[in-house]
Amino acid sequence: MIKALLLRRYWLLKHRFISTISFIILFPIIFHFSITKVMENILPVSSINVAYEIWVFPAIIFFIASSSTFAIIYRDFFDLRIHKISFLPITLAPFSKTHLIIGFIITSIIESFMYVIIAMIILSILIVEPLSWKIFLITPIFTFIYTFLLANIIVTFSIISERIFTFLSVSIFLFFFIVFGNGFIISFDLFPQKIGLILSYNPLSITLSELRNILFFNIINWELISIPIFVSLFWTWLNGTLLKRKLKQ
Hints:
mainly alpha; 11 helices; 80% helix
């Protein structure tokens, strides 16, 4: 099933190649100049004494992964279901609904992973400070974990939403939360203490926090790293159950 979904994504990309290439190239450039260059004038050095453009680099990669994952899940899971275009025949295939969810998520992660690699190359050219080899090796791994969790969240909204307005409103709120509530561009040290502590234990923020701990402090906390992984696995099963009840199949 994953092979068939990947082939489908390949044909879709082939028919909108120019717009896809533009997306891949422009997004990291836009994020770099609209976020990194602006914020480093305010915070030239992060709270952990690391140059801001280096500190925020993993977050920009996560932004790219978030944007691409949303676009893919929206089209493949929400838009096709709401408009009854090809989605229902796919659900009638001899696979469990959980396997169907996994297929869509893995497909979105693989495509998003391609965008992430290209974005990392483009950003490495734009950034003045030299990047450690660990950033290029470890960031894609944690991006996979992050995207796995985020894709499940978007899939849940896609299942329970019946109107485009509702889905987009919730998605906008989610993106605001990702930008300002996960320590992506502003360190939790700058939040009120209790709020920063609560936000730091959000599974999405844990992924980025632990990535930064590895990159900048060489600290690996497997217990915290395992939290978003297990949450994602449970959420995948939960999405399969929700889809089964939604479709009454």
